[in-house]
Amino acid sequence: MESYRRRLGLETAICNVSSKIWAFVDEEYEVTVLMDTVQQLTLKLFNWDVDMELVVTLVYAKCDRIERIELWDSLYNLASDMTIPWLVGGDFNVITDEEEKYGGLPVSLNEVEDFRHCIQSCNLTDLGYKGSVFTWWNGRGEDDCVFKRLDRCLGNFELQQLFPGLEINHLIKCGSDHSPLLLECKQEVQQFKKHFKFLNFWTKHDTFIDVVKENWETDVVANSFWTFNVKLKKMKQVLSQWSRSTYGDIFQQITNLEEVIKAHEALFESNPSYANREKLMKVQAELTRVLHLEEEFWKQKAGMSWFQDGDKNSKFFHAYVKGRRKMLQLKRIQNSQGQWLDNEEEIAEEAIGFFQAQFHETVIPTQFDILKHVPSMITNEQNEELVAVPTKEEVKHAVFGLNSTSAGGLDGIS
Length: 414
Prior knowledge:
Blueprint: E1 7-8, E2 11-15, E3 22-26, E4 29-36, E5 40-47, E6 52-60, H1 65-79, E7 86-91, E8 101-102, H2 109-121, E9 125-126, E10 136-137, E11 147-148, E12 151-155, H3 157-162, E13 165-170, E14 181-186, H4 208-216, H5 224-246, H6 250-270, H7 274-302, H8 314-328, E15 333-334, E16 340-341, H9 344-358, H10 380-387, H11 392-400
Parallel strand pairs: 6-7
Antiparallel strand pairs: 1-2, 2-3, 4-5, 5-6, 7-12, 8-11, 9-12, 10-11, 13-14, 15-16
């Protein structure tokens, strides 16, 4: 590894061996070149002011599938021991799906599969985009016109944790057949009001049942449904306060306990006495307990009832939740005129207008003669059974038959 310190004004200029990839880095970053090949340049950046470290891989891939194998191998090598935020971006000269190409010859599925396998094996995720799907144009028109998405940004799990508001824009092509990619690392995310959410691991605490029993017995004289609603509302307030006093912030606890363990480990190494070992083991046991709670939290959040218990999987569950959130995000939609909208306000207005039009009738039907031609398939006795009010036992059987770990409803209770 070699550090490059060629200053151009307030920046460090770095180029790869083929001089086709250039990087300009602010001088406040300490730059180390981890890998330098013809098709990619990988830099490790460290900022002393904010104590932030990340790896950036800039790609300029070959057009030939065989030649690109060298690029995929270099990425596999980097990913084998990558534990810090990692951004991979540039011109990969290959697409991941047939929808990323318009015109020209049929898509080579072998090339697509090579790229997909590399992304998956390196634990990278496509960071999405705003703007046109295509980033390259062959400059021709009519039947000879070809568009492709050859340029993209990928990131690992740690990068998405560091920059949860990461956003990539495909800018207009100007002076090149490729679109520039503008990546904005927004650390400020929109804050939403947190609603009550029942956490399943609460039920395993020794005092949980006593808290529920004590606060459920409320003297309310009213309709049964109203009484039930009042009791549920009270329970949510009580359980929220009980959770804060009993568990606190489990994520902050993990951070604190890890620091405490480091201190106890140093103390035990300098003085390996029984007392110091006992203190260390006590803190380690407490960390194990809180880590189990964290795993339970993310497991419930992921909603993966098919997953069997095993080793600690909180990171896997967290990544699953992040991936599902990313899939549910709407970066752009197409309106009724066929135009693509990527502005959040325009997307919201179009969505509201679409559903208002779909569920609104300008003419209310008054003729129902067609129903006379629908044959009767059940007897009157069967119909009476279908419309009968269910018994308490039937209601209880239905409620107790629900999945106890299912996603919470509007009231936050699973």
